[in-house]
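In the design runs reported in the main text, the only information available to the sequence generator was the tokenized backbone. The following block is the verbatim input for one such run; it is reproduced so that readers can re-run the procedure and compare outputs position by position.
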């Protein structure tokens, strides 16, 4: 499937709406996404891989060597990081295991 066809369809991953609430206090989708990306980048700090928003629908994963990959959900981010770094990544591991702790 080409990139354009893939961007037009498909279901959202459950994590893309994790913080939504009803009412006036609900954060915007863009604000939720920005917060999610900040948290992901904190987890990835020791790997020298970064994640940014791409078109408000996808994530751009950039490795330390300049390699980039566009992915559409949180599980695909972890997979891309593993491919770029060549090592297994457990985002739920304690910070010391990722090299980000004290």
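Verbatim output:
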């Amino acid at each position: 499937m080409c990139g354009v066809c893939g961007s037009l369809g498909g279901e959202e991953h459950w994590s893309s709406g994790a913080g939504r609430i009803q009412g006036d206090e609900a954060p915007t989708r863009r604000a939720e996404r920005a917060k999610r990306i900040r948290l992901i980048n904190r987890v990835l700090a020791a790997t020298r891989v970064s994640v940014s928003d791409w078109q408000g629908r996808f994530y751009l994963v950039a490795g330390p060597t300049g390699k980039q990959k566009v992915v559409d959900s949180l599980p695909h981010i972890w997979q891309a990081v593993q491919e770029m770094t060549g090592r297994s990544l457990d985002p739920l591991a304690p910070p010391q295991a990722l090299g980000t702790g004290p």
